[in-house]
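Retro notes (design track)

What went well: tokenization of the new backbones is finally stable.
What didn't: we kept losing track of which sequence belonged to which structure.
Fix going forward: every design gets posted as structure first, then sequence, in one message. First example under the new rule, 203 residues:
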């Protein structure tokens, strides 16, 4: 099968004080905005990784066709969520996964299209959008790296970035003019800034 989309939404959102997946962005919760973007991109298999806030988030995504998996150990970081998603996808054998953190609902669909097109064109094991020479998200991991993501002891300690660094020479970086790919929305102040900037652009 083609790419599967993975939405990482298992974090405790401790600094935000409430689940980031349910914050409003242009009239929809973050997680729903990303799921709709994946639908628009025709990514037909979509996985949402939830954590301790699963009972609060599940009703928001009930009307969307997606696989829900839960990470029982979100404190171990995103690599644990990625591994839970990969285990959930094993019977389907996607050729790659598009990994989209839930706190980046404002990444443009056109940006993700560019990353997906680069993956189709190059078949690189990892494709990353870049802004101001910084690696960003969403990232596409090819199936050739699934085993390493699942089993690497270094990734267990340091996260998926360890696998990325190990394959730096094979990495394809796609420069984009979308600063959202390197944004971080972790605190109420970050969220207020995001809303303020988008309201300014719209009005």
């Amino acid at each position: 099968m083609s790419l599967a989309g993975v939405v990482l939404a298992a974090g405790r959102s401790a600094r935000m004080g409430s689940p980031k997946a349910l914050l409003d962005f242009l009239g929809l919760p973050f997680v729903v905005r990303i799921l709709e973007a994946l639908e628009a991109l025709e990514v037909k298999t979509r996985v949402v990784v939830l954590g301790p806030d699963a009972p609060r988030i599940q009703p928001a995504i009930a009307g969307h066709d997606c696989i829900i998996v839960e990470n029982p150990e979100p404190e171990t970081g995103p690599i644990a969520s990625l591994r839970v998603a990969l285990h959930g996808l094993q019977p389907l054998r996607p050729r790659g996964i598009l990994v989209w953190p839930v706190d980046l609902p404002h990444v443009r669909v056109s940006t993700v299209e560019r990353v997906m097109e680069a993956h189709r064109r190059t078949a690189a094991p990892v494709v990353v959008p870049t802004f101001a020479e910084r690696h960003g998200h969403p990232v596409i991991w090819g199936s050739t790296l699934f085993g390493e993501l699942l089993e690497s002891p270094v990734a267990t300690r340091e996260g998926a970035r360890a696998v990325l660094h190990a394959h730096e020479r094979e990495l394809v970086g796609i420069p984009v003019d979308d600063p959202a790919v390197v944004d971080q929305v972790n605190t109420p102040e970050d969220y207020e800034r995001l809303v303020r900037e988008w309201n300014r652009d719209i009005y």
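Added context from the reviewer: The first helix runs from residue 30 to 40.
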